Amino acid sequence: MNPEIEKYLKDEKWTEKFKQIKMKKRLYNLSRIVAISVIIFALILLMQRIMLFLKSTHIFGINNIVIEGNKILTTNEILQAGELINIKNIFEVNLKELEKKLELHPRIKYVSVKRKLPNILLISIKERNPIALVNVKEEILYKLYEVDKEGYVIGGGDRISNFDLPVITGITSEKIILGEKINDKNLIKILDILAKVNKKIYNFGRLIAELHIDNSTGGAELTIILNEKNIPVFFGNKILLEKFLKLNSFITVVFKQLNTIEYIDFKYNDIVIKWKQG
């Protein structure tokens, strides 16, 4: 050890002074922590008093709740889903909590909530759009459910918004839950194709009464029933976007002759027609 250092360590006066310095430093750090804690506590109290004032003053009383983007859901349904019926003050609303609460509704995909001071609450909604109805057997009865292009169940029973949608049958899903996705790969594939066709051809879904999936042969065989004359179209197990587009073009060409067609076989690349006898 360095002789100079050893000398200082043996010096009792220096040792005592060193202890005093350390103690002062500890007291200083402790006083800083206490001061910061007091400031934070004071700020919290101040914020609580400010929020209490904002919630109690009539200046920020909700004058209007503006809802944008809802086409199916009514204003009252949205207010009930967000538990906003008895809310009086704009600062009573926790924006993030309200967004989460509204997004639990099966028909709502996305929500943005903003305050427009001093007294307007703005709710922007993106709804899930129904693309088809799914007919599922529950115990001994069949029940219709609305689904969007991703397979989410968004409506059922008397709350279905559009009965002109094509009906998909043959789904073997064990349980249907509002707001949750049906995990059936054949259904998801058909919904995806329907969405793509609808983008290319306006209201294509209205041409179709039913899309039936038959799993009894080991592979998913699709049969389409047209709205016009209930003509069956046998698609086979090749469920392709191109076949749907080709079917639409074919229907446009032979539309006036549909009443003479018994069925259409579209299992392969070419369309085969079975004409009615006589």
Architecture blueprint of SSEs:
Layout: H1 3-10, H2 12-56, E1 64-68, H3 75-81, H4 95-102, E2 108-116, E3 120-127, E4 132-138, E5 141-147, E6 153-156, E7 167-169, H5 185-200, E8 208-214, E9 221-226, E10 232-236, H6 241-254, E11 261-265, E12 272-275
Parallel strand pairs: 1-3, 4-7, 7-8, 10-11
Antiparallel strand pairs: 2-3, 4-5, 5-6, 8-9, 9-10, 11-12
Could you explain the architecture of this structure?
The model has no long low-confidence stretch (mean pLDDT 81). The strands form two sheets. A nine-stranded mixed beta sheet has the order 6-5-4-7-8-9-10-11-12, with helices on one face. A three-stranded mixed beta sheet has the order 1-3-2. The protein is α/β, with parallel strands linked by helices and 278 residues long. It has helices at residues 3-10, 12-56, 75-81, 95-102, 185-200, 241-254, and strands at 64-68, 108-116, 120-127, 132-138, 141-147, 153-156, 167-169, 208-214, 221-226, 232-236, 261-265, 272-275. The N and C termini lie far apart (119 Å). It has three domains: 3-56; 58-127, Ubiquitin-like (UB roll) (Roll); 132-275, Rossmann fold, CATH 3.40.50.10960. Strand 9 (221-226) and strand 10 form a beta hairpin. It contains six helices and twelve strands.
Show unreliable segments.
Answer: none
Arithmetic mean of pLDDT: 81
Report, as a whole number of angstroms, the end-to-end distance.
119 Å
Structural class of the helices, strands and pairings?
A: alpha/beta
CATH secondary-structure class of the largest domain: Alpha Beta
CATH topology of the largest domain: Rossmann fold
Largest sheet: 9 strands, mixed
Count the DSSP helices: 6
Specify Rg, calculated over alpha carbons: 34 Å
Number of domains: 3
What percent of the residues sit in helical stretches (DSSP H or I)?
A: 25-40%
Oligomer description: single chain
